[in-house]
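Below is a filled-in request sheet from our internal design queue. Each sheet records the structural input a requester submitted and the sequence that came back. We keep these sheets so that new team members can see what a complete request looks like end to end.

REQUESTER: design group, bay 2
PRIORITY: normal
MODE: inverse folding
CHAIN LENGTH: 180
BACKBONE (tokenized):
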């Protein structure tokens, strides 16, 4: 049994940090991190992807893609920082643009979350229908209606593409190895 004569002393310390008022730190996306991405904003909420693609139709062939943030904000992904800067300098009637570093918090968060998928858009490599034609002809057992000259031209084109790719890989390897 405890004696009741002693008085308990309570000590209270004031908290060093107030976690209840904490806000997430602002995402700092410098222009160096994703210079080929811009924020497209202040357009009507009933705009669809096709509408935005129509606004930036002059950049379609150079490589352009859109990722949505919300109803009135989207990210424009260009093939190079130069093309993105060019798009920023042009004025559009229905949309406004700004660099991602000056964008909203939601746009920066979306860009940070999908940074791996926001790489510059690349042109699709040249393709050939030779393999598909050969497979279909083999499966159906019919003769090809392609002339020998066309076949030879197609083979030469594929051989040149292989040689060009091999040369590019060799140059890249030489650059990394420091060879001339």
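RETURNED SEQUENCE:
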């Amino acid at each position: 049994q405890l004696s009741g004569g002693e008085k308990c002393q309570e000590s209270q310390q004031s908290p060093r940090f107030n976690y209840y008022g904490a806000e997430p730190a602002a995402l700092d996306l410098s222009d160096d991190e994703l210079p080929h991405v811009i924020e497209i904003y202040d357009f009507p909420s009933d705009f669809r992807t096709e509408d935005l693609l129509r606004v930036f139709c002059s950049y379609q062939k150079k490589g352009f893609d859109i990722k949505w943030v919300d109803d009135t904000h989207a990210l424009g992904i260009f093939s190079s920082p130069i093309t993105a800067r060019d798009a920023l300098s042009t004025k559009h009637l229905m949309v406004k643009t700004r660099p991602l570093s000056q964008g909203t918090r939601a746009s920066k968060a979306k860009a940070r979350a999908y940074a791996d998928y926001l790489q510059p858009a690349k042109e699709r490599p040249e393709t050939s229908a030779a393999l598909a034609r050969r497979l279909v002809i083999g499966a159906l057992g019919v003769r090809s209606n392609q002339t020998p000259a066309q076949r030879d031209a197609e083979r030469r084109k594929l051989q040149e593409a292989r040689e060009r790719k091999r040369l590019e890989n060799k140059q890249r390897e030489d650059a990394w190895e420091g060879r001339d």
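SHEET NOTES:
- Residues 129-177 form one domain.
- The chain is about 35% helix and 10% strand.
FILED BY: M.R.
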